[in-house]
Amino acid sequence: MTLNSISDSYGTTSRMASRFGNSKASEATKWGETPQIQQKANVTAKNAMTDSYVEQLKEYAKKDAQKGIYMDKEAIQFQRSQMSQYVSPDRSGMAQANQVLQGLGRQEEEDALLKFLDRMLGISAKVQKNSDKQTFVTMSGMSGNCSGKVHHNSTGQTAEIYSSDGEMIASYNSHGGGWTFQQTQAESKFLQESAMIYKQAFDAARAEMTTTQQTTAPAVSGDAPANFDVKA
Q1: Helix (H, G, I), strand (E, B), or coil: what is residue 19?
Q2: Pairwise CA distance, residues 166 & 7, whole Å
Q3: Which residues make Cβ contacts (< 8 Å) with residue 26, sequence separation at least 6?
Q4: How far apart are CA 224 and CA 170, in angstroms?
Q5: CA-atom Rg of the chain in angstroms
Q6: CA-to-CA distance for 151 and 158, rounded, in angstroms?
Q7: Which of 53, 71, 108, 166 could cysteine-pair with 29, CB 3.0–4.6 Å?
Q8: Is residue 31 packed enough to be buried (19+ CB in 10 Å), middle (13-18) or exposed (0-12)?
Q9: Which pTM does this prediction carry?
Q10: Bridge partners (DSSP) listed for residue 179
C-alpha cells in the first residue's frame, strides 16, 4: 500500500472528483464544511495547542531564526507529532479498504467478496454492479470507526475513507499515485494556528538579532569612539 503525504507539512490536497453520486448535503459533510464539523474542528485544534507545545514551538522558531532556516525539519517533526497525537483521525480503515481493492482487482465474485468482508474484516458492505462492468462497494464498521466507498472498473480504481462524522480523511486513485491523506478541518486549523505562532516567534527573534547587531557594530574606521576625549 502506497501512502502519499499531502505535502511536506500536511498541506491541502486537490479534491478527488466524486464517483458516488453524492448529494449537495453529503458533499458538504465530506469536505468538512458543515457547522457541526467546523465547530468540532475548532475545539480539537484549540485543545491541541497546549502551553508546553506552544512554548516548545517558539523555541524551535528562535533556533531556526539563529540558523537562518525557516521551519527546519525538527520543527516540522515536532508539529507533526503533536498533530498526530491530538488532532489527526484514525486512518487505519485504509488498510481494510486496500484489501477490498485487491479483491476487486482479482475479480472475485460478489458473494465471495461479501463473505470475506464480513468474516475476515468484520465490515458490513453493499456491492452494486452494473452492465458496463463497474462495481461500487459501500462499507461501514471499518477500523477506526470509519466508513468507506470503493469504485472499480476495467480501467482503474478509486476509494474514499470517512471519519465517524462523515468527513473524508483519505482517498485512493490507481491513476494518481495510490493512497493520499486528505487533510481534515481540524488538521488545517491546527496547522494554521501553529504557523502563526511559529512565524511571530521567528520574526521576533530575527528582529532582536538585527537590533543586537546594530547596537554592537564597531565604529566606522576614522571615526572616534563616543567616549574618547580628543584633545587639540
Answers
A1: coil
A2: 23
A3: 166
A4: 68
A5: 26
A6: 5
A7: 166
A8: middle
A9: 0.81
A10: 3, 172
